[in-house]
Amino acid sequence: MPERKNLRRDPQNRILDAAEAAFAELGYEGASLRDIVARAKVNLPTVYYYFRSKEGLLEAVFRRRFGPLREEHYALLQEKEARAGDRPLAVEEVLEAMLLPPLRMAARGGQSPVVMRLIGRIVSDPSSRTQAMLRQLHHDVKEEFLRRLARACPHLSREELGWRVIGLWGALGYLLAHPQRVLEESGGQFDLRRTDQALPRLVAFFAAALQSPPVRDTGGQPPAGGAR
Hints:
- By secondary structure, the protein is mainly alpha-helical.
- It has one domain: Tetracycline Repressor, domain 2, CATH 1.10.357.
- 75% of the residues lie in helices and 0% in strands.
- The protein has helices spanning 2-7, 11-30, 33-40, 44-51, 54-84, 91-108, 113-124, 128-152, 158-177, 179-185, 195-211.
- The radius of gyration is 20 Å and the shape is globular.
- The termini are far apart.
């Protein structure tokens, strides 16, 4: 019955569903169009008709899944700035706008392991195409967040801030890709799919990281008392 229901969906969405599952499981390089057409129960010309290429298919998967995330980021930033007026946003306010959309996506996709695996694959996939496409899709919104964080963290250089934001996104991606592990290791206390629980904890954690003093340049030497 589930297969019949799937076949009643239009071919374009069946292909996107199949590609999303294949990319989540195997990564961009590992997933083949042969596998995707078999999962979608279509022929290869149908894939080329809608998406032109495997790369075009990956871009369509990204835009379908993460395009709404981008729009939600912008909407939250505008909402918070309207409330702040002339005051620059605090670190916590910027972080709330950054973290809430992916947490909401995790909550909505909590019943879909494919969504969570896709997040983890995107974070860890070494494919240059995957990473370049992701950067292109989110370059503008990333710059908006960096600009506001720079105002909220004047003690950090742009380089230092960039490093910390990379760590922030990497940690968040890992957490969202492994919600069950987080739940088990916290003894059932930290459910990432419970946005009301996850958001204040993550905001507090990342805010502390961003507000800590700059790392002192040791000229390549290990800090005093550190590992040698």
